[in-house]
Amino acid sequence: MERQQRPPTRRGPAEWFTGEVFIDGITGNEQPPHASLGSVHFTPGARTAWHAHDAGQTLYVVEGVGIVAARDGAVLALRPGDVVHAPASEWHWHGASTEHFMTHISITETGTAAQWGAHVTDEEYTQAVARINDVQE
Questions:
Q1: How far is the CA of 97 from the CAs of 4, 61, 63, 81, in angstroms?
Q2: Residue 101 gets which letter from DSSP?
Q3: What phi and psi values does residue 125 have, to the nearest 5 degrees?
Q4: N or C: which end of the chain has fewer CB within 10 A?
Q5: Greatest CA separation found in the chain?
Q6: How many helices (H) and strands (E) does the chain have?
Q7: DSSP letter string over 61-74?
Q8: Cβ atoms 46, 96 nearer than 8 A
């Protein structure tokens, strides 16, 4: 058993995110690495760009309120304890609601690539928020 050095918190790159996003790496120091885990902190309104993962991605929400949306039009509200899996090659985005922070643990297989696309537009984001609000009322 070995305690690993925790890397410093880093800001999410502007190429991948809209708004203020901070990432704390959890794994990646062990050799060989098996999975990439990170705690991703979104400020209200912050979100990823459209993206897909070769082997899929699992999100475990630990705090706040968030949104995840897929190209097929599916939109889900995210709350603490929720687990969402985006299958391999599914284009999706995720982020915080307009009024709350959201933190999730992102789990992806190490050695697989993410494909990054366009930023989620304000219109796409607003439509997703409206769909979530319609369902909750």
A1: 33, 13, 12, 16
A2: -
A3: -65, -50
A4: N
A5: 49
A6: 1, 13
A7: EEEE-EEEEETTS-
A8: yes
- What are the residues whose beta carbons fall under 8 Å from the beta carbon of 86, sequence distance 6 or more? 52, 53, 56, 57, 58, 59, 68, 70, 92
**pTM recorded for the entire structure:** 0.90
Phi, psi of 92 (to 5 degrees): -155, 170
pLDDT at 122: 97
Which of 5-14, 72-81, 111-120 reaches the highest mean pLDDT?
72-81
∠ CA 53-133-74, nearest 5°, is: 30
Distances (CA, A) of 4 to 35, 45, 79, 111: 15, 33, 29, 21
Q: CA 31, CA 23: separation in Å to the nearest integer?
A: 21
C-beta of residue 108 within 8 angstroms of C-beta of residue 52:
no
List, as one string, the DSSP characters of 6-38. Answer: PPPPEEPPTTTEES-EEEEE-S--SSS--EEEE
